[in-house]
Amino acid sequence: MFSSTAAFACVAAVCLAMIWTAPSGMPHPYSGLSVEEISEESFARFPDVPANLTGKFSNNYLAQYAKRMFVGQIHGAESVAVTSNGTLIMVDKFGYVHRALQTGAESDLDCGYTLSIAPPLYIGPGRPLGFHTAQNGTVLFVCDSLKGLIRVDLVAETIAVLSNRVSAPTDSLRDAEINYANDLDVDLDGIIYFSSSTAGAVSLHATGFYDTMRSFLLNMCRGDRSGRLLRFNPSAGRTDVLVDDLWYANGVAVAHDGNSVLVVETMGFRVLQHHIAGPLAGTTTTLVSKLPGFPDGITRTHDGYYVTLVAPLSPLLKLLKLGQSARNALSWLLTSGLASKVVKRFGCVVKLSPTGQILSTFMDQTGENVSTVSAVTEHGGYLFLGNLMGDSVSRVKLSDINI
């Protein structure tokens, strides 16, 4: 994640020097909160740093074959959906829904797709993250970092909040709040499974979007294990907690047989499988662990799952072990703008078997063409890639990358 050993050493030195001068609380929106103890069990889940990006991780397919689309027009669209008629739907970080139809040849600009001339629908305020299409692409179920789980009718241009609180909180009213809904999937019965990354809030950036990266960095430094996997039953209007105590809950996918739900735990560097039916019902197991990057989204495909690694591993992880005072100082450093100057990028998609074996990967080793990949959609022999921090989305032909 950091671009060089020298840059990391500099950050470490400044961090240690700031231990005695940094404010006692954390930066906004974690003001008034203090860092927490991180257990040895949590540290034991960290992969080795630096990551061993050899073998299946040594290719450069995304740099070679991925084509960027709508450059400079779509900013921070974490997911790309494809409807039954081939329309692309993207929701950018400012809260606008964009649609595009393929009107030209693959060799044309933007792979032949043209953005709709109609003004994009605004569904803010908030940061729309993962979403799912329904009713032939006329309805979206969206995880919004500010509003919670929402339903968007693209025809009527209306928004309804489905869930922004848990129906049966365990300890307090604050436990009921859903402050950072992140990703979702829908099963065949219409039950919506979604993640709440953390109890911490997401703040508005000066440029007009809700800054989920800032909240992730604060969550990481705090050691905040308040992430949850949730289930919303539309017919009952009820939201229940399935899994809690997650260090930044992220991508969600219903398993192929519908008997379990997968959730990414970003700071656990793993994918968990919560069993909702069968002999393991009510238990949670690990599908894959010690991923060599920060995992973000997960998507079901016909023969497995795609997991995105949004950023490479970093020596930064070692600083988390220096104690609470160092992590408090680090929270001020990383949110001061330093992270964007020293963080290295790459593009990485991992394909897993249904049982969690790594089958293949596709990479952009430098992140110059594709980076911060957050979600993958497979459709018609192509992968469509959303991203966290880019100004476009991407498409890659499966036959080009031997998948």
Are there runs of 5+ residues with pLDDT below 50, and where? Answer: none
Name the structural class: alpha+beta
Determine the mean pLDDT: 93
The total of beta strands comes to 25
- Large-scale geometry: globular
In angstroms, what separates the terminal alpha carbons? 27 Å
The number of helical segments is 7
* Binned strand content: 35-45%
Main β-sheet description? 5 strands, antiparallel
Helix % is 10-25%
Radius of gyration (CA) equals 20 Å
Could you characterize the architecture of this molecule?
This protein is an alpha+beta fold and 403 residues long. Helices cover 15% and strands 36% of the residues. Strands 2, 3, 4, 5 and 6 form a five-stranded antiparallel β-sheet that branches. A four-stranded antiparallel β-sheet has the order 1-25-24-23, with no helix packed on it. The protein has a four-stranded antiparallel β-sheet with strand order 7-8-9-10, with no helix packed on it. Strand 11 (181-186) and strand 12 (192-196) form a beta hairpin. The longest helix has 19 residues, at 324-342. The mean pLDDT is 93.
